[in-house]
Amino acid sequence: MTSAVSIQDRLGGIWEVLLEVGVRPEDDFFDLGGDSLLVVELVTRAREAGLDMKVADVFDNPILGDLAQAVSASAAANKEAEPRRANRLSTEEQWRSYISPWSAEAPSCLVPFLEDGMGDPLFVVHSGAGNIRFISEVSAWGAGRPVYGFEAPGYRGEVRPMTSVPELVEKYLSELRVRQPHGPYRLAGLCFGGVLALEMARCLRERNEEVALVALVNAPSMEPFIDRGWGMDEIYHYRLRAMHERFAVTESDDAQELFEAMLRHKWIEADMSPADVQRLQMLWSCLAFAQIHHEVRPYDGHVLMFQSPETADAIGRYWYPLLSNLEPHWIPGGADHLSAIAQSPAVAATLMNEMGFPAIE
């Protein structure tokens, strides 16, 4: 067995590269500036160095010496950690006991916000958290026309989430075309929802339907934010631990505290309860899996993009080469605050105007 000292030396070298500081065995990863995203990079680099390490190991053992000991005795550490995970939802449990998203008993993904408007509707696709109903707070979205949103399968009820962009797109198109059988279609997407909206537009055009415009609000950079080699359970455990770290909530605290923190950030909705938190983080994991394994193809239709200026470099690298008819709009708000962008009346009004949705007399 590789000694804890040898593992500590290798881990210490990785820490120094990632954190750009010298490290000692008693140093704490997070005190030195580490965060949940750097945890992902740390685990990836450790595995490349031949160390069998999981995200949970870092959160459980943020001190370098402790982490080295845990990794060197991984079998014992995993056995000890198993009881702490026993009350968590697992992917297998979800697939075994939840119903199919195609079942007639599954709730519709299409959520009506404004059904009584005039003209063709706007369809808005959910963010990476799967929720969409918070946009109902923005009266300017419709500008007098109907507005519908798409909520991810599994956001409500015990429904199996989908794990790829093509199957999500096919599900949403099946419901969209019941409401609007033919184009012109107008689609918008929030963060990961922009990726889905763009693929929906591509599929509609391939079926000889007109797509008037696609709007991407806070589009993702498409750079990997989790390891592509992770399975669903590993992504899920990472997500739960990252949420606890972000909001300074320990696993022994009341789930109500984590629920309330997520509610404030519009990552969960007011009609949910603390009992829904684990299920919804499994949904996030499935949507994250779908996003990082999707390759966006070039698209020559008209695309509006509403982005924070801080994301300009990343957007330029990824999206500009793919979208030949892109019209960017730089808006304040910060890339980490999707709800602030999505709920801005000024942004919503601009979106409607740019999409050819003037107020209807």
Could you characterize what this model shows?
This protein is of the alpha/beta class. The chain has two domains: 4-84, ACP-like (Non-ribosomal Peptide Synthetase Peptidyl Carrier Protein, Chain A, Orthogonal Bundle); 98-356, Rossmann fold (3-Layer(aba) Sandwich). It is 43% helix and 10% strand. The protein is built from 14 helices and seven strands. The chain has a seven-stranded mixed sheet with strand order 1-3-2-4-5-6-7, with helices on both faces. Helix 8 links the parallel strand 4 (185-190) and strand 5. The longest helix has 16 residues, at 4-19. The radius of gyration is 22 Å and the shape is globular. The protein starts with a helix and ends in a 7-residue tail after the last helix. The relative contact order is 0.12.
Helix content class? 40-55%
Overall pLDDT confidence: 83
Order of helices and strands: HHHHHHEEEHEHEHHHEHEHH
**Biggest sheet statistics:** 7 strands, mixed
Layout of strands and helices, then pairs:
Blueprint: H1 4-19, H2 36-48, H3 55-60, H4 64-72, H5 74-85, H6 91-97, E1 110-114, E2 122-125, E3 147-150, H7 165-179, E4 185-190, H8 192-206, E5 211-217, H9 232-246, H10 255-264, H11 277-292, E6 303-307, H12 312-318, E7 326-330, H13 338-342, H14 345-354
List keywords for this structure.
single chain, 361 residues, alpha/beta, Non-ribosomal Peptide Synthetase Peptidyl Carrier Protein, Chain A, Rossmann fold, 2 domains, seven-stranded mixed beta sheet, 7 strands, 10% strand
In short:
By secondary structure, the chain is α/β, with parallel strands linked by helices. Helices cover 43% and strands 10% of the residues.
